[in-house]
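Example record

The entry below shows one chain as it appears in the dataset: sequence first, then structure tokens.
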Amino acid sequence: MEVEYLLLGCIIGPFGLDGTIKVYSKTNLADIRYKKGNQVFIIDKEGNRSIHEIANYRKTGNIDFVKLLDINSIDEAEKLKGCSIEVVKNSNDLKEGQYFFSDLLDLDVYDENENLVGKIVEVMELPAHINLLMKSTKKKNVQIPFVKEFVRKVDIKEKRIYIHFIDGML
């Protein structure tokens, strides 16, 4: 089986002199992903993947400050600017009812009467909750709050999501 990776974020530059990197976060499980001793992968601008071990981590807002064991200077950290940082996708990290954002993308959206109404094109993490952006069959963008009041069923294997739509939503 092919290994899948999850994007944690984009390296935006060094922080301090010890080689700590600043990462614009794209994960809501940063505490798990950046746990000391975990392995992450850095993908450079040519698409080459290198493996690194986490030494330390802290977060402020959407910025993750990550210290890797083998990056020990500001010059080494500066070379990583613009690179992506990823981990191996592991479903064991999720609790029941949780999903990877990447698994929600491209799901076909059905209403409660089994009518195909669109496709999920983006997952947005907003302050209040996660929203799904659906491109409707009528080419209209519709934001759907990812909460139980609207999301009735998610079937990753069948690539389907069932939504309860209220008047005016479509």
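Notes for this example: The two ends are 39 Å apart (CA to CA). The chain has two domains: 5-90, 101-163.
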